[in-house]
Amino acid sequence: MYEAEGRRTDRARDPHERYEGHGLRGRPRRRPRRRPPRGVRTVAGQVFALQLGVVLLLVVAAVVALVLQSRYDSEREARNRSMAVAESFANAPGMAAAMRGADPTAALQPLAERARKGSGVDFVVAMSPHGIRYTHPNVNRIGKHFMGSIDAAVKGRTVTETFTGTLGLSVRSVVPVLDQRGKVVGLVSAGITIKKVSGAANHQLPLLFFAAAAALSLATVGTALVTGRLRRQTHGLDPAEMTRMYEHHDAVLHAVREGVLIVSGDGRLVLANDEARRLFALPPDAEGRLVAELGFDPHTTELLVSGRPATDEVHTAGERLLSVSHRPTDRNGGPPGSVATLRDTTELRALTGKVDLARNRLKLLYDAGVSIGTTLDVVRTAQELAEYAVARFADYVSVDLADSVLRGEEPQEGAAGTTGGGGSVDGRPTPLRRTALSGIRDDVPLYPLGKLIRFTPNAPQAQGFRTGAVTVVPVLSDHGGWQEQDPDQAQKIVDSGIHSMITVPLRARGVVLGVASFMRAEKPEPFEEDDVSLAEELVTRAAVSIDNARRYTREHTMAVTLQRSLLPRVLPEQNALDVAYRYLPAESGVGGDWFDVIPLPGARVALVVGDVVGHGLHAAATMGRLRTAVHNFSTLDLPPDEILSHLDDLIARIDQDEGHSAVADGDGGGEVIIGATCLYAIYDPVTRRCTMARAGHPPPAVVSPDGTVELLKDLPVGPPLGLGGLPFETAELELPEGSHLVLYTDGLIEKRDRDIETGMEMLGDALAHPGRTPEETCTAVLGALLPERPSDDVALIVARTRVLEPGRIADWEVPSDPAQVSEMRAAVARKLAEWELGDVAFTTELILSELITNAIRYATGPIRVRLLCDRSLICEVSDTSSTSPHLRYAATTDEGGRGLFLVSQFADRWGTRYTAEGKVIWTEQTLPLPKNGKPRP
Length: 937
What we know:
alpha+beta, Beta-Lactamase, six-stranded antiparallel β-sheet, six-stranded mixed β-sheet, 33 strands, 39% helix
């Protein structure tokens, strides 16, 4: 224990023992630390070891003596007990008669066992003079010969012997049984194991060990008291260590560049090291004198005499600034007094001031980088610069930019050193628009936000915009150039308290975008050179952000313009649907959302909505290509699933072309459109049926006339366009007249903080209002679901269904007989007369005659004819053949080939539409104006 304590003391002294002695110039010499040898080193430890040895020796001797004495006493006790039991049993009355009896065992066995149990011996055996046992605890041994020595007992003497039997070390005694004549008639033997009588030593051993422990405890306490006293007197050090510590203390005290003063409790200087003498210019006999007599600064004298604790207090010593720390020395039982440490901080104070200034400046610029340019908005970025500078640098800040910058363009001739933004050196003003303004008060007569200010050539703003130079006006009332702009306004500004100004041009990429003006009013100090450099760095950071916002504004405007030019500007005229739409570009970038309304033959209308993956010009251009492709595929009058399949192939080819182009340009990371979503629906006002298919697009919504909303989530959905590998499926549903069919893109229902399911629920709630027009529905939906700044494009179509009146539909089934052509012509003429369309009866009869004749000649199965009176007259002839007629020039000798030529000449449009049963050949003719001159409904 004490050895461990000695090692801990060595570790605590380790900082003082690492060096011993000093060489030239006070540099310490390295000396390896001496490690004490293992074993007991202290006097107290040696005394304790000696006491421990003596106690252990006494304990061992006592234990040995006790064991030997116990063994001797146990054996003697065993002899006495066995002899007493044997003699008592042998001399019992009637023993000799029992021995001579006919059955000694029956008479003596119970008595022997009772005597054995009562006396506590291990056995009591009665036997004949020849050694044959009459009794034994183990009845199996009765009648057998006794194993011990009986010769002396047979002669009338007693025998006691020690032996080792089955029960261990034992003692047995053999006593003769004499009759009245003194003749030996039998023998009695009693035996007992020694361990039964050895318990006395066990009771004495704990007392012995307790006495040894008490002696050891007393030795430990005594040693601890001696150790404590020695440690208090020597602080745990031996003489060699104390000498070495003193040498270290003296060397370190006078070598460090930190002053040390030790003052006694009565105010006298006890010790002053070399550095303290140098700092205070103390006399050689300073030690021992009163502190008040040594010429210290009064503040320093008061601190040294008072004894109060202090940490890094600033005191003076002539022209020096000292950092003083003061502590009392009697806290832990030391002598009364105090110790003071001194550091010369004169140069450090000056350097610290510069460091603090630089650190504050760096922090200001860092915070500016975080606070300015948080959005890609020119006006917002300029306002952030003004607000940040007012809070930390100036009292009023204004930012004036060229109008072209606000439009996303570069200033006209805006490079530094040339004319910029309309400004020139020939006396013309420089027009800049007040874009941002911030100040500590709102009642200062500065130009308001949004005002176009025409700065005169001598104004600091105009000079900075033209030349790119910084202008500093320390005293505004003394500078005449800026007052030429508006003398009355300038006087009001000076009267409001603004007295100093810095004008810094906003330059980015070699182009001056505008001017920032920093003004002071509450702070009395004018702007200095350090303020100029800080203002330049602030404006430089802000100028880059403003230029980025300007370039983004230009690209965003171009993308929006391109996208809007690719979207339908005016919806086509048709009677099947009453359509309203909305398109909103994203706040942060144009996407690839599009929609379309395409009239189809047979009075049908196709509704299309889609979304190209990605944002920017590339997505907008790809959207235009897809919209054109949809128009082209729609002219083929294909079903929705086939149109989506063709679009899927087109997207795959676009991806492939983009990838090859990127490789050819050496750009492995070129942008590639990876897909698009699309929903294509066809509504037929004759049958009121809507056929639709979708490729990865959100499901449409159907609002019944009574306001019930159904989101068609069960509509089969195919993979997005461009992935390929899976077919597309169509679904068909019947819509009541007046139903609203709602198509949209995911930007309407999906947000970063809102999942798509929640958005669809909100859409359903916004649509569940019967009686609204499509325009009102569009407004309500956007108001309920869109944030102020949408992060994605939104396309929305709301179409209210109409039904073609049955009276405007005529339908016939024509037998496959050429003789029926004339009857059909007559039936068609009557129907046209009923519709007041007699002016087109001749051409219509001619067209139908040719189409019906071709169907009878070249097709099989039933032939049907249908007339639809919509915005135009539509004639349809359907058959079960999948062969389509082609327009061609007939030769002079050809009998046929002229029918379709005549049809194309008389009809405005014509074409073929394939169905599941065959094909339909259709024509459209413009309806003549009714006799009242009003257009037909």
